[in-house]
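Lab notebook, page 48
Experiment: co-folding of the full assembly
Goal: obtain a model of how the components sit together before planning crosslinking
Operator: M.T.
Materials (sequences as entered):
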Amino acid sequence: MDKDSIRVALTRVPHPTLGADVVTAGAVSKIAYCDGYASIRVAGGGLHDDHRRGLMQQVSAAVRLHAQQAMEALADVHVEITEDEPELKSPVKGPSPSAPVQQAKPPNPLPNVRHVIAVGAGKGGVGKSTIAVNLAVGLARRGHAVGLMDGDIYGPSLPTMLGLGAMETIVRGKMIEPFFVHGVKAMTIGKLVDSERPLIWRGPMAHGAFKQLVEQTNWGELDYLVIDLPPGTGDVALTMAQVLRLTGAVVVCTPQRVAQDDAVRAVRMFQQLSIEVLGIVENMSYFVGDDGREYDLFGRGGAQMMAQRLGLPFLGAVPINMALRERSDSGEPVGNFTDGSDRNRPLAESLERLVSNLEGQVALAALRTGQATPTLTIR
Ligand code: ADP
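Observation: model returned without errors.
Model output:
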């Protein structure tokens, strides 16, 4: 980590009024870095207090995220917002200088969505997309209006997992209609680009692609929007934190020790972005053999212990199940819940538990942030 790499990291932070990132806007007037201490000075002339506070948080979050990605210890970040004018004084696009000052936070792009939940993982292949799909389908089966967005813009898997292959993309004006499948409104970049072309995005392009998918999909009214994030800790999560108001995040992990280390990094990333972690899911936790016995192939319980260690809720364990994998590949997730066979029962029960624990954690989070009044549900 050095001054130059910090400058690159700061290109992810949008200037609140100039329609460019803070570096391009000429607002970063000093970067110093020594032995884990970073000091950034940003020219904030003309910004009102809410913008200054937001800028300070975002600059600090971008530097911390950069340190995390570079795997370097960061002792402190000092951000100073001065009264100096940035070099680029007039906006690149957007409001004219005489326009009224913008709101403190960018307006909520999804005012008709009650809860936005991100599903993340420290690394690929742990079943993050599988869990995101099944959470969405499970919530919809309980009567909620649910959207599912493929935020994994580098490797979208929803076209396959939801069986969107032959479906036509419908565009009305500037808005794209989500695909209504398995009771869920879904959107993925995988249906908007050539599915076999590698999706290579630089930071600002990834930012734009994610923002467009969120803002230009006609979600309508939703109780839950589940977002399947790319694996690891990176640009898309930072964009998401800037653009959306999240209820919280779910982190998916497999039981092994090595997987936990990655998951802890994902947890820390959400916490640094001020996103509440609603809980941990242990996927591929155990295997049920033909003899009906449960085998702990990867060391069942590892993720649960990690959750305890971090003081986070444990949402549940999902077994390894061949039919689950087959239904992911054929795009038919509902069978995970409806197949009443003995073989499927442990899977169905584990998914139902997961969904109901998530509902509970979302209700608690909403109470903590004053988003909801308590309701009593009698089943
Ligand atoms: P990620 O999103 O973390 O990269 P995926 O959800 O794409 O992971 O899952 C990777 C592969 O593992 C997929 O083929 C999926 O069907 C399979 N898989 C995920 N969870 C399970 C499970 N519990 N049992 C069996 N196969 C699983």
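Interpretation: Residues 121, 124-130, 157, 231, 283-284, 318, 320-321, 324-325, 328 surround adenosine-5'-diphosphate (CB under 6 Å).
Next step: discuss with group before ordering constructs.
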